[in-house]
Amino acid sequence: MLKKKKTEIYALAQHISMSADKARRIIDQIRGHSYEETLMILELMPYRACYPIFKLVYSAAANASSNMGSNEANLLISKAEVNKGTTIKKFKPRARGRSYPIKRPTCHITIVMKDISLDDECVEINSLKNPKWKNNHKAMVYHDMYSSGGVWDKK
């Protein structure tokens, strides 16, 4: 019986203290990129959500090098997802003895990296970068109906 060698490794961060939408904004930028490109992108982006994602990508690469012995130059982010976590609820005292609820959202981030040197089949990197939900429609060109030589040119 032939065993298929595992080519994917993942890292998971739970209960990160930020909104899932803010983390998704960053994850959408790095999905499908190589490991070195991802680190450069995350270092240069000005968002607070970049630091925990940077640490998670670094951890996934360390998992890949220690568990599979793969080189960091061959790593590619094949899957990255952000899920909503629990909401921390506190009450803040306000005027006239009232209380005001404070909600701190959390999120769970999963990053799956693939070693392209161990993969038998060729992976098209552009298919991972471009989301499938985007429609690549061409812009419609409206011709000027007054100068088209049609009915409107007659006087």
Automatic annotation (TrEMBL):
UniProt keywords, alphabetically: Chloroplast, Plastid, Ribonucleoprotein, Ribosomal protein, RNA-binding, rRNA-binding
Name of the featured protein: Large ribosomal subunit protein uL22c
Subunit-level organization: Part of the 50S ribosomal subunit.
UniProt xrefs under Pfam families: Ribosomal_L22 (PF00237)
Function text: The globular domain of the protein is located near the polypeptide exit tunnel on the outside of the subunit, while an extended beta-hairpin is found that lines the wall of the exit tunnel in the center of the 70S ribosome. This protein binds specifically to 23S rRNA.
PROSITE patterns: RIBOSOMAL_L22
HAMAP family linked: Ribosomal_uL22_B (MF_01331_B)
Record keyword Oxidoreductase present: no
Native species: Uncaria rhynchophylla
GO terms under biological process: translation
Gene Ontology terms for molecular function: rRNA binding; structural constituent of ribosome
Domain of life: Eukaryota
